[in-house]
Amino acid sequence: MAEFNTTLLVEVALDLASSLSNHDRFDRLLTSIRKAIRCDAVALLAFNDKVLEPLAIQGLAAETLGRRFRIQEHPRLEKICSSRHPLRFSADAPEPDPYDGLLLAHTGNLPVHACMGLPLYSDEQLIGVVTLDSLTPDVFNQIPARTLDVISAMSAASLKTAFHISQLELAARHNQDVLQELTSEALSREGGEMIGRSAAMEQLRAEVNLVANSDYTVLIQGETGVGKELVARNLHRLSNRNHQPLVHVNCASLPETLAEAELFGHTKGAFTGAEKYRAGKFQLANGGTLFLDEVGELPLSIQSKLLRALQSGEIQPVGQDQVERVNVRVIAATNRNLKQEVEQGHFRSDLFHRLSVYPITVPPLSEREEDVLLLAGYFLESTARKLRLRQLKLAPQSEQALMNYSWPGNARELEHLISRAALKARAEDPAASDKIIELQPRHLALEITTPQVIKKAKAALAPYSLKLASENFQREKIIEALNAAQGNWTKAAELLTLDRSNLARIAKRLNIKVEKILMHEAGT
């Protein structure tokens, strides 16, 4: 019997470690039990709220699996559940057998027979029972108590493993459902529609439709408030990943000390405060899309790790030695000029090129004049719904005011403007909820300027960009130093408190040559 028990232990242990379904795992458990103990019927039942539910049976009618045994209605099962150890029933036990008429080896009520029950405990809690029946009376009496204890422990371990797997599967399905729900909510927020009929918007739609169904990394560029997140949502919605999660990360809000853990996850104890394992945004987006908003704000220390994830599809959670593979499409957005950031050393050149496999520029509202009233109509409708107003509309003078405004804050500014104006108009009439509210210019409080004035102002400001002003200042100072040093680069570098090689590099970028300077001086 001891050798048999060793074989049995190995079989059940292997089943516990395998990727069997619960049905197969339970069936093999009962088969192993029948190898150790000869019986005509065996059943594994789960205990839940004073009810025993059959999970697997052998030697019993198939309908048994559909039964739910309330233990107070079945004295034998009640005694088994109340015991802490395997319980044998005498052949002449008066309690009716719950399997009367269900044994395949015998029809009708069971005659005098052997019956035994094994209560299964985990963490001092009853989780189920195993019942055994044999038409041979007293056949279970000679089985050593140690053998029954081992079988009970193995059965409890198998049942607990199955419970854990079921809970994990349920949690995984729940998490997936939550992600899908959040993704659907994100895609439908603000309608998810790119409003506009201008040529610029038609071009934008064409680019989105072209690249959406690929796995190309997309870099969305544009001013603040133009709707870069809306473009990202449409790219995901039109892709073949649209049933997988869309995970949004605001890179500007990531502290440098925690950015790596937020993106790639961390193990328990990886740093102070890391009390448990936490998946990063890349793991959460696995199979779907990761939207890196304001990617230009990422610190340089994180950019190299992001580059690795984009190049190889591999990430390494903080505190973990092994790398993990992820299948994620990355969409990034920025209102910065990343080419300029690269030139100034604030953004990695290789990451920029990896992100901008397919760049998309979202046009500002000032270049979409024919879309202003369309967007206003959309925001009027959504604002009326939020404020529970019957109707919101624009007065003719207000329409003209919107058309003449420069919109430095783009569509977002228009949305907020409509919201504020609606609140002001509603405050003027307590009964406004049941009326058609017309927004007047006083509600908008806009500074009216003509498009011609706007274009002239932009043209006047263009030459005085910060980059150009900085380059002009550097050029002026370097030329002054070279003149003072009579064209000697080493002396000029000393005057500017620069290394000679650095001065030469800057001068080359600014197209400064000593020959030109000396020729100019000679000419004057």
How would you characterize the overall build of this protein?
The protein is an alpha/beta fold. It is 48% helix and 15% strand. It has 20 helices and 15 strands. A hairpin with a 2-residue loop joins strand 5 (114-122) and strand 6. Helix 1 packs antiparallel against helix 2, helix 2 (22-36) packs antiparallel against helix 4 (145-188) and helix 9 packs across helix 11 (349-355). The longest helix has 44 residues, at 145-188. Mean pLDDT is 84; it is low at 460-464 and 518-524.
Key traits:
single chain; 524 residues; alpha/beta; six-stranded antiparallel sheet; five-stranded parallel sheet; 20 helices; 15 strands; elongated; disordered C terminus
- The rounded distance between the terminal residues' Cα atoms is 113 Å
Q: Number of helical runs?
A: 20
- The value of Rg in angstroms is 37 Å
Indicate the overall shape: elongated
- Mean pLDDT, rounded to whole units? 84
Sheet with the most strands?
6 strands, antiparallel
Strand content: 5-15%
Strand order in the largest sheet: 3-2-1-6-5-4
What is the tally of beta strands?
15
List unreliable stretches of 5+ residues: 460-464, 518-524
Helix content: 40-55%
Which structural class matches the secondary elements? alpha/beta
Q: Would you kindly provide a brief summary of this structure?
A:
48% of the residues lie in helices and 15% in strands. The chain contains 20 helices and 15 strands. It starts with a helix and ends with a helix.
